[in-house]
Amino acid sequence: MRHFLVLLLMIFSVGFAFPQTPTAGIVHSSVPVAAQPSNSYALYLPSTYSSAKRWPLLLIFDPFARGEVSVKLFHDVAEKYGFILVGSNNSRNFEDPSAAIRLLWAEIKEHYAIDPRRIYTAGLSGGARVASSVALACKTCIAGVIANSAGLPNGAAPPAPEVTDWFLAAGTTDFNYTEQLHLKETLDSRNVASRFEVFDDPHNWMPKEFADRALAWFQLRAMIKGLVPMDKEFVAAQFESRVAEAQAEQKAGDILAATRAYREIVQDFNMVRCPNSSRRPIPNLVPSPTLTTPTVIYCRRSRPCQSDRLGNANRKLLL
After folding, report:
1. Fold category of 2-228 in CATH
2. Cα–Cα–Cα angle for 56, 171, 100, nearest 5°?
3. Per-domain residue ranges of the chain
4. Closest CA to 131 of 167, 155, 78
5. Taking a C-beta distance cutoff of 8 angstroms, is the pair 191, 212 a contact?
6. Whole-model pTM above 0.70?
7. DSSP code of 295?
């Protein structure tokens, strides 16, 4: 594992040049790696792609090297938010992915205009462990990880609260559900920015709706970090959508999911200026230090999101 992480750290040094690129706006199932044509990757470039600007990258690892499957999962939302998608056709379970990643990364650096501040990884199952390994090796060069149906590599130490955001996902009958839940608790205890989404399925890629949530969250987090300009309409729409999702979980009787969703809303939106007149109650879901009485999330024009405990005149930032 140490050799693998050291190799990844050497791989992810960023430098760019831009030869002719494949056609934008369509999914390419197999683009040969110039340095070794027996290796290939699936590719999606946003329809407005131009090398005149830098673009966020999502590098995806499927456990069965199905690059096209993973790229097609994300390509609609990638078009919406302007992400380049690259899905490895060579990284697969039970094989050392180091050589494939080294070749793939050299190809990406040479051919595409990547924003070095916004490089993300994603993976399913064993591919999620590869995606996590890249982030752990780079420490500060991966902006976010989508860990679908698995978390960290075996024996790896949890990440520190540096620059990487973690979007965790698992199915309701996923055999790795408990692992993902425990990882979420660990990340929370270390103040690492994270979300945990559960979909109605076994051990598999998340539905497209959840892929949309993942990249939308990365977009929001990029605004919070100052990597992209703040878009008030986008923030407002995300706030309303996230509250609606939490309320749906509550109505369905999933108190754990609803509580987690409300807390994640607070985590994200206390860092940005919220939409005007947004007031949403966080009900008394479970007895806990943070949800002992109904709480209202509200915003003022000149202040971040705040909380106001009902029946308590004291107001404070929800951190």
Report:
1. Rossmann fold (3.40.50)
2. 45
3. 2-228, 230-319
4. 167
5. no
6. yes
7. E
